[in-house]
Structures are given as structure tokens and as C-alpha cells.
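Technical note accompanying the year-one report. For the benefit of new consortium partners, we illustrate the data format agreed upon in the data management plan: each record pairs a sequence with a C-alpha cell string. No post-processing was applied to the example shown here.
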Amino acid sequence: MEKIIFFGLVIPIMAYVLYLGGMAIMNGFKSKEANRAEKEEVESEGRETRETSDEQSTNLSDELTKLNDLKEKGIISQEEFEKAKNKLLNN
């Protein structure tokens, strides 16, 4: 009789503990996957930002080179060159 009561209580308790452990493990996997997806999203946004800044710096250097060529050819004066350069650098 004592064995029946013992196993009647222990088996359901053990099953519940195993269930809770399994749920905790599954929640951990879900959280890890969500963190991985979020990290990949942040990294892709960072790459896009770097690419945009690289394009802007390339465009800026191209514009400065064009301005310098115009100044060297005598199309614009030194004063106009300085104004245009300051306008590009301040934007």
C-alpha cells in the first residue's frame, strides 16, 4: 500500500519536473534564435550604414577633385573654390 501511494505521488511529480525542464530548454533555444536574428539584423544595418558613408566620402572627394580642377583651369577663382569647398565640407 505504501508503495502504491509513493509511486502515485513520485511519478506525477517527476513527470512535471521533466516537463518544466523541457520547457525551460525550449524557451532557451527560442531566445537564442531570436537573439541571433536580432544580431544579424543589426549587423546588416551596420553594413548598409558603412556602405552609405563610404559612398558619401567617395562623392565628397570626387566633388573636391572637380572643384580643384576648375580652379587649376582658371574657371573659378580661389575665393569661389574656398566657398564651394566649405559648403561641401559643412554638409
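Partners are asked to follow this layout when depositing records. The chain has one domain: 2-90.
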